[in-house]
Write a structure and sequence with these properties.
Strand order of the largest sheet: 1-4-3-2-5-6
Radius of gyration: 22 Å
CATH topology of the largest domain: Rossmann fold
Largest sheet: 6 strands, parallel
Order of helices and strands: EEHEHHEHHEHEHHEHEEEEEH
Number of domains: 2
Structural class: alpha/beta
Length: about 290
């Protein structure tokens, strides 16, 4: 997939364009993308960065990083994606200016958007504005009861089966491996310590089963109360893995919430529980 950051970087040719933030690239988004790909025109996405609500000063826990979002769009068959900077200048574009700058200039002939789609200054543009500009509407099969907000709610509660149902794949943590306390290695279970971006969604504290790099992973999310920790740590232990992950990006699927985190009466008791968590991780079933 080719990634552009300005309309001028895209050739003018017949396109079907899907427009939106696409945070999570969930099953509702995938239906829009599928319709775009099946249109017979060049499938193109315009995605907004940062998230409009974040740009307006609101708190949003993002389901995916921009990097992962672009990977998922490519996996859905999108040929080119324009990452549109959601700036004050962008927000001041009238609907007609948006159509001229971002759609007709790149050859768009059709758009795939929902009934409630709004765009342009003060959200004055509607689906009718697009059709009045000569753009066809791509029919999209609606997916009920799926939204980015609903995904966030289920992930926060650790309801990973339901999150996977809406996403069409397991929920993922995506971050860079940084130095940690290195206690896991002394206990016989060396973990990676993932630095998660401050705007990214994270489930409630606990121990989870999942996978990364084609290895199952037992994942601790929390403050490590046995050692009196106070800062959040995300520490996957990759089963049967041998390698150096420091400084590398790691995407970890979360499959199942195993238990709450807690302190133990002794270190041997902690190690025994970790062994049970590892066994549960080996037995876990990938959702989605």
């Amino acid at each position: 997939m080719r990634i552009a950051h300005a309309p001028t970087q895209l050739e003018r040719r017949p396109r079907a364009v899907a427009i939106g933030t696409f945070d999570g690239v969930h099953r509702g988004h995938l239906s829009v993308l599928r319709a775009t790909v099946d249109s017979g025109l060049d499938p193109t996405v315009i995605t907004l960065e940062p998230h409009p609500r974040i740009a307006l000063g609101n708190r949003v826990e993002l389901i995916t990083t921009l990097e992962r979002r672009l990977e998922l769009l490519a996996e859905a068959g999108i040929a080119e994606t324009l990452v549109a900077a959601f700036t004050p200048e962008f927000m001041r574009l009238s609907p007609d200016e948006f159509v001229a700058t971002y759609l007709t200039s790149i050859g768009a002939e059709a758009v795939a958007v929902g009934d409630g789609f709004r765009f342009g200054h003060k959200r004055a543009g509607t689906v009718e504005t697009l059709t009045a500009a000569g753009l066809a509407r791509v029919d999209v099969v609606e997916v009920e009861d799926v939204s980015s907000t609903a995904v966030r709610d289920t992930v926060r509660e650790g309801a990973l089966d339901e999150a996977a149902r809406m996403l069409g794949r397991p929920f993922e943590l995506d971050g860079i491996v940084v130095a940690g306390d290195q206690r896991g290695g002394t206990l016989g279970y060396p973990t990676a310590n993932i630095a998660l971006g401050p705007d990214l969604l994270c489930p409630r504290y606990g121990i989870y089963a999942g996978a990364a790099l084609d290895h199952r992973a037992a994942v601790s999310i929390g403050t490590n109360p046995h050692y009196g920790g106070t800062e959040r740590r995300i520490e996957p232990y990759l089963l049967d893995f041998d390698g150096d992950l420091y400084g590398k990006r790691l995407v970890v699927e979360l499959w199942e919430r195993l238990r709450d985190e807690r302190a133990f009466e002794s270190e041997p008791a902690l190690v025994a529980q970790i062994a049970r968590d590892v066994d549960a991780t080996r037995a876990a079933v990938r959702p989605g």
